[in-house]
Amino acid sequence: MSSPSASAAATFSFGRLLLGFVLPVLGHGLAFGSTFVVARIVEPSAGGGFEDVVAAIATFFVIEVVVTIGSIIAIVLLLIRRRRDLALGVFLGWLVGPAVYFGARFFS
User: Fold this and answer.
1) End-to-end CA distance of the chain
2) CB 83 within 8 Å of CB 12
3) pLDDT 10s digits, 7-58
4) Domain assignment present for 86
5) Is 22 contained in some domain?
């Protein structure tokens, strides 16, 4: 016999899928935007160093690693809780980042 909470968790909601999609996309946007902010704040040394470029790249990669690890943890926990709509949304939202990266590489 199924309980009401089990049947409610089994229903697929497009709204929850969109919510799950938006959160990782916002994480990618945060990484992209903060890269420009850090590049403007950090000034290169007088000898023509690349401190600003290194700071921007490091910021981007650190935030992307956090978004990736957070997405993996969220997907696993949501699948355990049988929230497949949210898990699929988080996965598709995270997938936007690699798709944009490889798409830019392929089409440029």
Assistant:
1) 56
2) no
3) 555 688 888 999 999 999 999 999 999 999 998 998 877 777 788 889 999 9
4) yes
5) yes
3-state secondary structure 36-90: HHHHHHCCCCCCCCCHHHHHHHHHHHHHHHHHHHHHHHHHHHHHHCCCHHHHHHH
Please report, for residues 27, 35, 42, 45, the alpha-carbon distance to residue 50 in angstroms, rounded to integers and kept in the order given: 26, 14, 10, 8
pTM of the model: 0.80
Phi, then psi, of 13 in degrees rounded to 5: -120, 125
Count of CB atoms within 10 A of residue 19's CB?
Answer: 15
Q: Number of structural domains, the chain?
A: 1
Closest CA to 93 of 22, 14, 16, 10: 22
Question: Under DSSP, is residue 86 helix (H, G, I), strand (E, B) or coil?
Answer: helix
